[in-house]
Design goal:
The complex is a heterodimer of chains A (about 190) and B (about 170). By secondary structure, chain A is an alpha/beta fold. Chain A contains 8 helices and 8 strands, in the order αβαβαβααβββαβαβα. The longest helix of chain A has 11 residues. Chain A starts with a helix and ends in a 5-residue tail after the last helix.
């Protein structure tokens, strides 16, 4: 299963109105290619911070569901976010980590996720639920999204195929800020 | 630790922040803002973070959700924060108020603070982050200035907290 396969399977099952925070790199590209909505936020920098941004959103907006689409390199860069999420324990936060064991967008250099079980780190940090699947299917995705958060799902994916899983996100960064705030009823 | 005069400044300062619309407080501590964090905590407003850039990420999320955030940090944490400021806040037009303590002010501090203490204002200038270093008599006006700058420019704005202001 590739990143595009996994994101493509997940995207149509995300409940309407869910805020989706996409990590930088190929996760954002795959997410944009699968489904773009006003509630989608795509990072093009600040690697590691998708989960932190998701936490801020979940705490600021307990009335909304927040889904963080993350990668193993991102989670390993800022594992403190797992601790912060576990400690704050927002029930409206779901966190998916697509794990290909590599920094795909910089050429596939290996991470250390083959030796560090990130779903166990998340569990130890206090996530209400944490699990790992070798492949994502519809039943698993829907059951995960229906759980009370914070919930963490590691989805193993294959590295590849070569090249990006979608185009660069065309939205200007400031336009993404404005549209998400607008979608959430904040002043723009 | 400051005397009673400095400790008494924290509560009115937090009052001013709240009156100016700030409603989300996250950070990593420094002794120079100990009384401010204690006051925020007393009001149930303070979220402790693990690193300063993570605190900035949380603050960015809060802003996207409609809140007006404050990030508290020691200036050592500004070094940790530069990528978040450069490729998240400044890039996406996401404001926040940075309460950055000025360890190493005038070169009078422990050795680990001297390099950042010397570079602090220049570093913020390089990133085009407006900043002021309030004194006791300008604190109120500087909070109002920071809030207005943030709203107008949609960038982070910093208040540099020197030794003796709060502690």
């Amino acid at each position: 299963m590739t990143l595009a396969d996994a994101v493509g399977l997940l995207a149509p099952r995300i409940p309407a109105g869910t805020i989706c925070v996409h990590a930088n790199g190929y996760v954002s590209r795959a997410g944009y290619a699968a489904r773009d909505r006003e509630e989608c936020f795509y990072m093009i920098g600040s690697m590691g911070l998708a989960a932190s941004i998701g936490l801020g959103l979940a705490l600021a907006r307990p009335d909304r569901r927040v889904l963080v689409l993350d990668g193993d390199g991102n989670v390993l860069m800022n594992p403190g976010a797992l601790a912060s999420i576990g400690a704050a324990a927002p029930p409206n936060l779901h966190h998916v980590c697509f794990d290909n064991g590599a920094h795909a967008s910089t050429g596939g250099q290996r991470t250390i996720s083959d030796r560090v079980r990130l779903e166990e780190v998340a569990r130890a940090c206090g996530y209400r639920w944490s699990g790992r699947v070798e492949t994502l299917d519809a039943v698993t995705a829907e059951a995960f999204l229906a759980r009370e958060g914070p919930a963490f799902l590691l989805v193993r994916i294959a590295l590849g195929p070569p090249g990006p899983p979608g185009p660069r996100v065309p939205h200007a960064p400031e336009a993404m800020t404005a549209r998400l705030r607008r979608a959430l009823g904040a002043a723009t | 630790m400051g005397g009673s005069g400095t400790l008494n400044r924290a509560a009115p300062f937090v009052d001013r922040l709240q009156a100016a619309g700030f409603d989300f407080f996250v950070g990593v501590p420094c002794s120079l803002v100990g009384p401010v964090i204690a006051e925020l905590d007393r009001r149930g407003l303070y979220l402790p973070e693990t690193r300063e850039d993570a605190a900035l990420g949380v603050a960015a999320g809060a802003y996207l959700g409609g809140r007006l955030p404050v990030v508290v940090m020691q200036n050592s944490g500004l070094g940790v924060s530069l990528n978040a400021l450069g490729s998240l806040h400044l890039l996406y037009g996401i404001p926040c108020l940075l309460l950055v303590t000025w360890r190493g002010y005038r070169g009078e501090d422990a050795p680990e603070h001297l390099v950042m203490g010397r570079a602090l204002p220049n570093l913020l200038d390089l990133f085009r982050i407006p900043h002021r270093a309030p004194g006791p008599e300008t604190l109120e006006a500087d909070v109002a200035w920071a809030a207005a700058e943030m709203r107008e420019r949609r960038t982070p704005v910093a208040l540099l907290i020197r030794p003796g202001l709060f502690a």
